[in-house]
Amino acid sequence: MNLNEKLTKLDSVKAEIDAQRPISADQEQKLMQKFRLDWNYHSNAIEGNSLSIGETAALISYGLTAKGKPFKDHLDISGHDTALSALVDLVRNQEPLTEHVIRGLHELMLGGTHDVSTVDDKGGRTTRTIRAGQYKSNPNHVQTEGGIVRQFASPTETPLMMADLLAWYRQELAEKTLHPVVFAAMFHHRFVAIHPFDDGNGRMARIIMNITLMQMGYSPAILRIEDRNPYISSLVQADAGELSSLIDLVADATLRSSELFVKAINGGAIDDLGDFDKQLLLLRQSVLDNNEAESPATAAEMLAVCENLLIPAYRRIEQRLEHIAPMFASAATNSIATLQDGTNIVQKDLGQLAAILPAAAAGRPFLQMQLFFQARAFAKNAKQDFMIQVMCNFGRNDFVVTSTLTGIQTGEHFKSDYARVFTAVDSEQLAKLILTDVLASINKIVRPNN
């Protein structure tokens, strides 16, 4: 099929889907789980992530890490999945895409500040600091496998070019001169050509492209790892003004998701029975074999960890964060408990969360418990923000508490099984470990040259 035929077929499939809306909550949940798994795996694999699709499923569904795989690869998948959760809300609420929204999604995806190796203006290797949610402060050109340096917008050009991109986006939404797939592909390329962030631009481009498609009623275009070479080639061709290959790839991916959508609402199976299932079953078996003598933690044991360790520690941290808030233009705290069935229990007030948690959980096991604090526009440098995310991941037989902060590498602070009885000493020690990193992070903001 040529492009026009594909777009005609795609619109026909979309009309078939629209005729059957609204779909049941069960169908929607199954579809989103499938899209979310494929999206997390393929988008990160395109960027070199080493986790298999089975390992990706184990991580996002059960919090299980893959033995021998880089910790950063797990963080990249988890951060991307967090951004996809926010995307679902943006699409459902038809929230306009703005620079603020884009920076917020980037911050969710990257989580914190870290250093990477990159290419400088002269093609040499250098190290730069990645700041989540902030436009690049240094050139971020990319050296291709053929040794060619691919140039992107300079840091000084980036704010103006992003403003122009979003102005064009708003104008096209109003005038509707392009087919949505063509519009989404063009937006994707223009974003990549700017490369506004120090890292994560490819994954962000694919997320934003799909916000555009999904808000216009289309299924997401999930570009696959097996299409990586044609995809990269299509972006290079687009740099030269030839967008047909990129549009064709996006159309194929959108049509593939749309046909899966139709299959689901007509009662068909949407899970792939291939290498994914084999890998996942093997991974599951290895986990269960290693823990066959141990019963999985109960929901009551997980709740006890929340009530006796995490909430007291989070309260101590939250109280100290109140001293930081006046140094910024705005600050906000959220406490979030995520259950294994996907339910999120969110409260701005930690005390309120503690009060409602037993009833809200209703005997269901936990997946995560997090404290998230974000402060924007430092008093002496409005471009500087501060963020801390304290996360407890509940596993089958143990749990681990980590943190991500502005300017500080993520770290593991506490790991234990569920048999331990936690006291005030434990929660105080956990709070001290995290607050030590908070102090170091704030010092970097207040005294950047030290």
TrEMBL record:
Q: Where would you find the membrane-spanning parts of this chain?
A: none
Q: Does the keyword Manganese apply?
A: no
Q: Which domain of life is it from?
A: Bacteria
| Any one Gene Ontology molecular-function term assigned to this protein's record | ATP binding
**Annotated catalytic residues:** H195
**Alphabetical keyword list:** ATP-binding, Nucleotide-binding
Please tell me where ATP binds in this chain: D199, G200, N201, G202, R203, M204, A205, R206
For the keyword rRNA-binding, the answer is no
**Mind telling me which InterPro entries this protein's record contains?**
Fido (IPR003812), Fido-like_dom_sf (IPR036597), Fido_containing (IPR040198)
Ranges for the Fido domain?
Answer: 97-252
Give the site residues for Important for autoinhibition of adenylyltransferase activity: E47
Annotated Pfam families: Fic
Question: Which PANTHER family does the record associate with it?
Answer: FIDO DOMAIN-CONTAINING PROTEIN, FIDO DOMAIN-CONTAINING PROTEIN DDB_G0283145
Protein name, per record: Filamentation induced by cAMP protein Fic
